[in-house]
């Protein structure tokens, strides 16, 4: 196959929809994708590991990263910063690997502006009631945080229009299967293949 740049996939969607679970299951199966580990200022949860789940930063460190333009996108979500390291994403795509981001919707919209050739996947809850149950049942958050996250979720659902694909998360296995299909289909897109072959021909003729 011809050398090509990797594709940037962005999985986003409302808080509590199960993005993290779907992403983890996808990575159990799909080993040739590269996950971009985010930076965050939020507290480490029990069982999380620095450099595996997130790179944990202080507010000062994070604001320094913003000032130095080292982030592809960032957002403040429930009073904490979250952001995607720019250099890792650019370098890994350049090396020909697909990169996968799992981020909230404000950040996804920034990526859409700066990187429109990315493939944007919106993970959708089966219903708002179901979404609420999942957030409440997680049991790791206070009432206030739950309410904040729900308010956020309602706004986020309205942002679905900006995405290329919508995957309903009624079943993790099925959702992961659909994301796998999206990844395969994107690699078969005529525009992508045609560009590569034209480049090959031009290189051969020059
Ligand atoms: P949590 O605190 O539950 O790990 O994540 C909270 C939210 O932040 C989730 O919706 C998650 O997808 C999102 N998130 C994780 N990393 C990033 C990132 O790098 N950028 C943005 N914008 N959101 C992120």
CATH class of the largest domain: Alpha Beta
Quickly give the structural class: alpha/beta
Terminus-to-terminus distance: 20 Å
- Give the biggest sheet: 5 strands, parallel
Strand order within the widest beta sheet: 2-7-1-8-9
Question: Architecture of the largest domain, CATH level 2?
Answer: 3-Layer(aba) Sandwich
Instruction: Provide the domain count.
Output: 2
CATH topology value of the largest domain: Rossmann fold
Bound molecules: guanosine-5'-monophosphate
Q: What is the chain-wise order of helices and strands?
A: EHEEEHEEHEHEHHEHH
Percent of residues in beta strands: 15-25%
Number of separate helices: 8
Overall outline: globular
Explain the overall architecture.
This protein folds into 2 domains: 142 residues, P-loop containing nucleotide triphosphate hydrolases (Rossmann fold); 60 residues, 2-Layer Sandwich (Guanylate Kinase phosphate binding domain). The chain has 206 residues and is an alpha/beta fold. It is globular, with a radius of gyration of 18 Å. The mean pLDDT is 90. The two termini are 20 Å apart. The site of guanosine-5'-monophosphate (5GP) has 15 residues, from strand 5, strand 6 and helix 4.
Topology (elements, then pairings):
Blueprint lengths: L7 E5 L6 H11 L3 E3 L3 E2 L14 E2 L2 H9 L3 E7 L2 E6 H9 L3 E5 L2 H10 L4 E6 L3 H10 L5 H15 L7 E4 L3 H17 L1 H16 L1
Parallel strand pairs: 1-7, 1-8, 2-7, 3-4, 8-9
Antiparallel strand pairs: 3-6, 5-6
Helix pairs in contact: 1-7, 5-6
Bound molecules: guanosine-5'-monophosphate (5GP).
The site of guanosine-5'-monophosphate (5GP) has 15 residues, from strand 5, strand 6 and helix 4.
